[in-house]
Design goal:
By secondary structure, the chain is α/β, with parallel strands linked by helices. 45% of the residues lie in helices and 18% in strands. The protein has two domains: 209 residues, Rossmann fold; 124 residues, Rossmann fold (3-Layer(aba) Sandwich). The protein contains 13 helices and twelve strands. It has an eight-stranded mixed beta sheet, with helices on both faces. It has a four-stranded parallel beta sheet with strand order 7-8-6-9, with helices on both faces. The chain starts with 5 loop residues before the first strand and ends with a helix.
Length: 364
């Protein structure tokens, strides 16, 4: 990159607390390196339409404390097409981009890969980098994604509040949390909140087995006079709808224990919102710092991930600017993510083992 070039940044896919902190860090580091940093509104849609936003340091300072994304986010059907990608490349050429930093999940990284190497105004090739942002923690080649810690804290706080009313009335609550393809949030928040049952798709239980699990927990809880409540944390990835799950549980347990009172709370998009935790702000800043510096040094086609347990050996290299950041080719990230989703990766197998062990502890 040269001083005449611009560094473009965008946030894409589902929003995650900490995205704004990533934008702030990318702007500060990029500016310090001598580059003009501009943002594109609503992800790839804004890139296609050429809707850019000149970033302001004071606005970014304020936004970094808040959830969501000041640039907006969207999923663009047009960008999937060759025509849409061509329009995006025309924007890249017209707006003198030398590099593009994409903050988002699996689909966002796939989009970044499509744009790598696009011609730039000075006859060079566009450099791209990605930052993992997904509250579900469902991306490969990073032990944590931006937004996960805040989402877990939000769920635990909600469970604590529900526990108060559950204990007052001796109720059973089924609490559904986000995690369509990954049960990480449900499992970790269940342990942290002291839940009695956790239901995730990875264990591949039948509907009857899920009902059996809750019924057994209720029978044990009501057999103990000291037990005042029962918490069930369920991932949205479990196919059995929470309302139908409650009905099936009631049908089984009420003939045995008539005074059982079960309720359903679906946290839904509450989990996405709120001010990012200190960890998410720091994680976003460190990942953005390493990625922006790598782009400035000529690196391209990588995702900056957080080094920790479960990273595939040899897939990436440590950033020279941060010993906890690993730079992995986007192609390898996408492959590892697919393995994580189908359960064949080492981290997926480890998680399934831990999920099973944790379930046994909760039931016991």
């Amino acid at each position: 990159m040269e001083r005449a070039q611009r560094l473009g940044v965008l946030t894409s896919g589902g929003d995650a607390p900490g995205m704004n902190a990533a934008l702030r860090a990318a702007h500060r580091v990029g500016t310090a390196l001598g580059f003009e940093v501009i943002g594109f509104e609503e992800g790839y849609r804004g890139l296609i339409e050429g809707r850019l936003q000149r970033l302001d340091a004071s606005r970014l300072d304020d936004a970094a404390r808040r959830g969501g994304t000041m640039l907006g986010s969207a999923r663009s059907k047009e960008f999937i097409t060759e025509a849409g990608q061509q329009r995006a490349k025309e924007t890249i050429l017209r707006e003198r981009l030398g590099a593009l930093l994409v903050v988002g999940g699996n689909g966002s990284l796939t989009g970044a890969q499509k744009l790598e190497g696009a011609p730039t105004f000075d006859g060079r090739n566009l450099r791209v980098a990605g930052l993992p942002a997904s509250i579900d923690n469902d991306l490969g080649c990073t032990s944590m994604a931006i937004g996960v810690d805040t989402a877990m804290n939000t769920i635990v706080e909600a469970c604590d509040r529900i526990c108060d009313t559950a204990s007052a009335h001796r109720r059973t609550f089924i609490i559904e949390v986000m995690g369509r393809d990954c049960g990480y949030l449900a499992m970790t928040s269940a342990v942290a909140a002291g839940a009695d049952v956790v239901l995730i798709r990875e264990l591949e239980k039948s509907d009857d087995a899920l009902v059996d699990q809750i019924v057994l927990a209720i029978e044990r809880a009501y057999g103990d006079p000291a037990r005042r409540r029962l918490l069930v944390v369920k991932s949205e990835g479990v196919k059995l709808d929470s309302t139908r799950l409650k009905e099936a549980v009631d049908a089984r347990i009420i003939p045995k224990i008539p005074d059982v009172d079960t309720r359903v709370t679906v946290l839904g998009h509450v989990v996405r919102g709120g001010s990012p935790s200190a960890f998410d702000r720091l994680l976003a800043a460190r990942l953005a710092n390493a990625a922006t510096r790598a782009l400035g040094e000529g690196e391209s086609g990588f995702m900056a991930g957080w080094a920790g347990p479960g990273l595939p050996s040899g897939a990436g290299k440590l950033s020279p600017h941060d010993p906890y950041v690993v730079l992995t080719p986007i192609g390898e990230v996408l492959k590892e993510t697919a393995r994580l989703m189908d359960g064949t990766s080492d981290i997926a197998k480890w998680r399934r083992k831990i999920f099973s062990e944790t379930e046994a502890i909760l039931i016991g």
